[in-house]
TrEMBL record:
It comes from the Bacteria. Residues 48-255 form the Nucleoside phosphorylase domain. The keyword Transferase applies. It catalyses: a purine 2'-deoxy-D-ribonucleoside + phosphate = a purine nucleobase + 2-deoxy-alpha-D-ribose 1-phosphate. This is Purine nucleoside phosphorylase. InterPro entries: Nucleoside_phosphorylase_d, Nucleoside_phosphorylase_sf, Purine_phosphorylase. NCBIfam families: PNPH-PUNA-XAPA (TIGR01697), PRK08202.1 (NF006054). Pathway: Purine metabolism; purine nucleoside salvage. Belongs to the PNP/MTAP phosphorylase family. The purine nucleoside phosphorylases catalyze the phosphorolytic breakdown of the N-glycosidic bond in the beta-(deoxy)ribonucleoside molecules, with the formation of the corresponding free purine bases and pentose-1-phosphate. Cleaves guanosine, inosine, 2'-deoxyguanosine and 2'-deoxyinosine. Signal peptide: none annotated.
Amino acid sequence: MSPTGPSAFDQAREAAAHLAEQTGQAAYVALVVLGSGWGPAVESWGEPVLRLRASDVPHFRAPVAEGHRGELLVFDLGGRAVLVQSGRTHLYEGHGPRPVVHGVRTAAALGVRLVLLTNANGSLRPDWEIGQPVLISDHLNLTATSPVEGATFVDLTDAWSPRLRSIARRLDAGLTEGVYAQLVGPHYNTAAEAEWMRRVGGDMVGMSTVPEAIAARECSMEVVGFSTVTAIEGGGDVTDPREVVRAAESTAARLGPLLAALLTEGITEGARG
């Protein structure tokens, strides 16, 4: 413990010990973070072994955004324990990066080496359709912050695992890949901002996920991500948060079996490697 209080990793170890005690499971192989409207993605996985309120676990905050359920679920996928964080904390809530990535660091303390992140996006490409799933190939961190504390230099060259993306494309050859840009929010971006993000290489924009990916890479975890198109930027339509959730829910339910297959194959192949 430092003079200013426990470190982020001390907090993660405390949460991990609590989860291990509550679940009877001391080690997990993967973490899945379900973003806006992604709760139905795990409905095809059967009943969870255990379901907890996230806010009952040390240092987790109850999500405030619509479409975030605020639960921690434990699933058995092929005899392996997978932790699912259904709902997340966002930077725009004003608590800083530490609680945003607490789930990732807790998973690392539980032995997790593979993280699957999901979210909803506004498409910066007019040729994409509402409800279309996109495999995240890279990101633009436009939040002017980082979850990394101190002089810890994290290489993000291959932040989004080429190995796991290759497995995902093998499982679904029709998947589109794209670069995800994160703004802080909670306001939506302007048309001029959307055009600027397009010009600097963004394919989609949202308000989450990038800090978690950075924190996972700091812990040497492999990261893969899926984003659902829930709005088309620059079209002149007003973004309705309820419509965002509804569009994501439909896609999430459809992608549940793909996510399970990706985790199973990614874990098995990684263990062989």
